[in-house]
Design a protein that fits this description.
By secondary structure, this protein is α+β, with helices and mostly antiparallel strands. It is built from twelve helices and eleven strands. Strand 7 and strand 8 form a beta hairpin. The chain starts with a strand and ends in a 36-residue tail after the last helix. The C terminus is likely disordered.
Amino acid sequence: MQVTETLNAGLKREIQVIVPAKDMEARLVERLEDAKSKVRINGFRPGKVPLQHLRKMYGKAMMAEVVNDILSKSTGSIISDRGEKAAMQPEVTMTEDEKEAEKVLSGEADFSFQIAYEVIPPIEVKDVADIKVTREIYDVPEAEIEEQALRVAESARSFTTKKGKAEDGDRVTIDYVGKIDGEPFEGGADTGANLVLGSGQFIPGFEEQLVGVKAGDEKVISVTFPAEYQAAHLAGKDATFDVKVTEVAKPEPLELNDEVAKNLGLESADKLREIVKGQLENQFGALTRQKVKRQLLDQLDAVYSFEAPSKLVEAEFENIWNQVTGDLEKAGRNFEDEETTEEKARAEYQRLAERRVRLGLVLAEIGEKAGVQITDEEMQRALYETVRHYPGQEKEIFEFYRSNPQAQANLRAPLFEEKVIDHLLGQVDVTDKKVSKDELLADDEETAEAAPKKKAPAKKKAAPKKAAAKDEGSDGE
């Protein structure tokens, strides 16, 4: 095999590989010999089929297997032998001329192909002892825990039927049918639906028109679906709802006690408070880590300056741009609404993509030098956490990751990154600082995170909610 470098410009490399016809012949004969004892051909005893007969019948097909074998096995080894790392999957090209290809498959010509790729630049891991970060810590007060626990307990609040008009905070039980242009639409009807007025559970304008109704009232409500409504066929449409009120109930005073906790499936009010405290601490702890990580990445970005592989930057930019434009389209906005232009936005996100790629390579090198590893158990936990977000599709998601190495790599990448961040935080100067909630929540200038966000298999569309009148943004997703 003859390997010749034909391009070495910056990070770009091109390699010409020639496998002489005699070597191709030797590989083919080896395959034919192996097949000789396995094939069954009428008129020949097992293992006695002449080699020339096998060549006549299977020669071209087996030579094609030889070609594929060389392409799959040699590309990585050639780059590795050169002491290089490819930034992305190398591009392999060979002749498209049918006559030339026929000669190769017939063993009459050398097999020639080209490998084009970008290398990951050499990165010298630098001392980080001079890096200083401030870890902002918010201690959640008991009053905030109690307030949040009461919000959670709200779902277990009891109501008592009352006479008279419904007020904000009252619960109305209703039957309704939604119509567009006078025709009922799918998912727009329900019976016995409970709605707490003022909860924001239904689309804007719906609940307000029920204030003042009494049991037995019938009313036609007119609303307009939000432009960004999840069901595209309803988004922005004017609709009416024929509503019949079957009950009005007033809320009972809410007290956080063991009985309320048991209605929520917990053994005591203290257990509810404990769970709420843990959730709040996790929530604010995640903000603390995000800010620390941002400081760390900003300083690493200032220390490491090198050319990032253009293909990686291009791929990362496309990920970012697709997300940005998709979010704008979903919100019915454009770049002018964001007080910028598409040209300026492209330049900004191009810089963001370059930063992400560069920092991703830096963290990868630091992690490799430090011996950071992701265990099978950690991968399994991450997989189960991912699967949890796709109820009813667990089997398909498991199979997707099991059979897709790239998906596994995308699952592993953020785990590896966070471990490297932990490793660095053990080496840099970290100062803890107690802050208020407002200080912790204060918006910093947005900066990039090191690596592209992990990808997941496309999620199937959720089934329409039973009542289209319900505000689909209220479920927290």
